[in-house]
Amino acid sequence: MLIDDIKALSNEIAEDVIRIRRHMHQNPELSFEETETQSFIRSELEKIGIDDIKTCANTGLVAMIRGKNPDKKTIALRGDIDALPIQEENDVEYKSQNVGVMHACGHDVHTSSLLGTARILHQFREHFEGSVKLIFQPGEEKLPGGASLMIKEGVLKDPDVSTIVGQHVMPLLDAGQIGFRSGMYMASADEIYIKVIGKGGHGAHPHMNIDPIAISAQLITGLQQVVSRNAKPSMPSVLSIGRIEGYGSTNVIPDEVNMQGTFRTFDEEWRERAHKLIVEYCEGIVTSMGAKCEVEVRKGYPHLKNDQAITAAMRSAAVEYVGEENVVDLEIWPAGEDFAFYSQEIPATFYRLGTRNRDKGIDAMLHTPRFNIDEEALKIGPGLMAWLAITQLQ
């Protein structure tokens, strides 16, 4: 059976996929700076025998694998390639060689796995109809998001892509487990910047000043009600202020306070309305207390939605590949992901590849200096994605 042949090949190439992952892990590059990574990916694709490769979004790549009747249907598989500005603390032989840069979100895994998938699909290209577009995307970790740039440059066109699939590591799942969620899955992610401009002076004479510290305290508390009193109870929303700077002292009231935060939700209409409410609330409170304010809501990634029909079909295919006991249903995840841009354009599925192994001490979370994976997951990831692609084309 084809599924057994794919599993066998996925196991056979696992050592080479791990080699690719370790090379990338040792040589991480930040968002939109992935020039060496791009060259490395191109060379690996050419080793496979894939020669239809194009540059996109400057440091990204798009490659095509054509099966029988290649114009019948095209689906896309996406892997992101950038790293994070984090100093790695893992003591492993493949530790990052670039100071202050680390693959702490598993993009080295996504890319190496996708290259393994490419090898499998290329070998079995006579077993499916249609084409597979491989997207190696830069800049997932930095606004405006590489996905938005690739879409603007036509990555979902010529030929038109009917479905797109993304795979992401998950340290909350054991290696060998796969996670799916239908419908809304990941949140939109917007940045909030607030400056409260008062009048500083001696702390003993607050009546002679306009205290931006006191005003900011009221803003932080009140902004929570902008969400809790306006969002539907059924619509998850988060507003968090994560930074506040007011350079006064024990007896000094500063002239101004600067705050930064984030707003996240899962509905685009409510998101737009919330932006306006945040600005109006800040301006209203600050003005009523005799101060001035500057408010910027910097729009980030939209929410990520998984197409229900496609996700159900792929979940069933995953059950065939790894067994019912290893496929889990995910809860919503309020982090942001620029794969969401694709999901706003065409039917999409974004699923999770388990990478945890507590017995090996591998359980650190994403975006931390000690994040790592159980590389046993790379025996599953390439073949699973190949099988999901083939079942969609069938």
Attribute tags:
about 400 residues, alpha/beta, Alpha-Beta Plaits, 4-stranded antiparallel beta sheet
Structure summarized in a few sentences:
The protein has helices spanning 2-12, 14-26, 35-48, 107-123, 146-152, 212-228, 268-288, 308-322, 339-343, 381-393, and strands spanning 53-56, 60-66, 74-80, 131-137, 163-174, 178-180, 183-186, 189-197, 201-202, 237-245, 252-253, 256-265, 292-301, 304-306, 327-329, 348-356. The chain has 394 residues and is of the alpha/beta class.
Report on this model:
By secondary structure, this protein is of the alpha/beta class. It has two domains: 2-187 and 303-393, Aminopeptidase (3-Layer(aba) Sandwich), CATH 3.40.630; 189-301, Alpha-Beta Plaits. The chain is 34% helix and 26% strand. It contains ten helices and 16 strands. The strands form four sheets. Strands 1-2-4-3-5-16-6-15 form an eight-stranded mixed sheet, sandwiched between helices. A four-stranded antiparallel sheet has the order 10-12-8-13, with helices on one face. Strands 7-14 form a two-stranded antiparallel sheet. Strand 3 (74-80), helix 4 (107-123) and strand 4 form a beta-alpha-beta unit. The two termini are 15 Å apart.
